[in-house]
Write a structure and sequence with these properties.
Strand content: 25-35%
Number of helices: 7
Structural class: alpha+beta
Helix content: 25-40%
Number of strands: 15
CATH class: Alpha Beta
Radius of gyration: 18 Å
Length: 285
Amino acid sequence: MCRLFAYVHSGSAKSMRETLGDRLVDEFRQLAEVHRDGWGAVWGSSGALSSYLSTKPATQDPMFDALTTQVVDSVLVHERWASPGIGLQLDNQQPFTAGGVTFAHNGTISNDDGNLVHRPAAYRESLGLFQSTTMSDSRIYADLFLLRLEEQRRYSTSEGRPPSVDDVKQALVKTLAQLRMDYPDASFNNMIETSDFTFATRAHANQPKYSDGLRRGYEAAGWAHRIDDYYELGYTSISHADGSVTSVASSSGYPASDHWTKLPNNTIFVLSHRDASIQTLSLEA
């Protein structure tokens, strides 16, 4: 159970604080008082990609404040609240990055029989993950998506080039079809970044469940009123005086604003790194 945030710029790059203002950035940072099981980020600047992972909460890590003032072209941030029984170690920290693709997840993938990660090896093998030894449900989700994306790129003859929007969509559709068979009530919300696009996916049960632990954590922080929109994703586009544009996607938790549009469930939000343009795609189409 985590918080997700991403944006891309078109034109002159700007920092998170320049783009969003201190109130929104500080609010997102404050969420780490509950989502305190570490954080991570991937960001692009002048064509170079950098990443950072930590088991410290963002509120206790000077690197978070440094990142919010750094001029970047794109950024994806994940604040972690670990699924019950999933260890606090760097191997489990997000975002996960492999083969030029970054993946971050918000949700616990479990059912009445327990968490996905505790299924026997034969289950992972049935998904095609023959050498997976990870102890994180989110990483299994990421690994399965990356496997389906690799297969899709071979099928669509885009192997050797960055994944297309359709490659990512089709890989997600196939991944969700497999995991939802056994985990229909799980949240599969995610953010994905490639060299050309950033994606935000809202994909959860139509009536998601809120655990007692989630409610207690938010009530203790004084945020009980935010539980009911916990799995929402919002997006907005910000025009600047110099003609540049910033497009932003974020999970719920930021202050209410008329400028944010709620992403429908089972929908992908796509940000272009070339011009910050926005498109939404249905996962049900």
